[in-house]
Amino acid sequence: MQNDYFKSLNEFSANAMEAAKSLGEINSKLMEKTIALQMKAADLMVEGGMKQGQVVQETKEVKDYLAKQASLVEEYAEKFVELAKSNVELAQEAGEDYKAWVEKNMKTADKVAKTVAKKAPVKAA
Fold this sequence. Notes:
Largest sheet: none
Number of strands: 0
C-alpha cells in the first residue's frame, strides 16, 4: 500500500513540475512579446524626437513650424494608438493563456491529490 502511495506522490510531483515548466514557457513568451513592444515604443520615441529636431532646424517661420509640429503629433499619435492596441491584444492573449493553464492544471492537481489522499497510509489510533 505504501508503494502505491509513493507512486501517487511521485506522479503528483511530476505533474507539479510539468505545470511549473509550462507556466515558465507562458511567462517567457509573454516577456519576449512585451519587450518587443517596449522596444517598438522606444524606437518610435527616438524617431519622433529626431523628426522634431529636423523640423526645428529646417523651419524658419513660426506658422510653418506649428503646422509641421501638428502633423508630427498626428502621425505619432496614430502610431502610438496602434502600439497601445497591440499591448491590449497581448494582455488578452496572456489572460487566455493563463486561464487555460489554470483550468488544465487545477483538474490534474485535483485528480492526483485525491488519488494520493486515498492511498495515504492510515495511522492506527
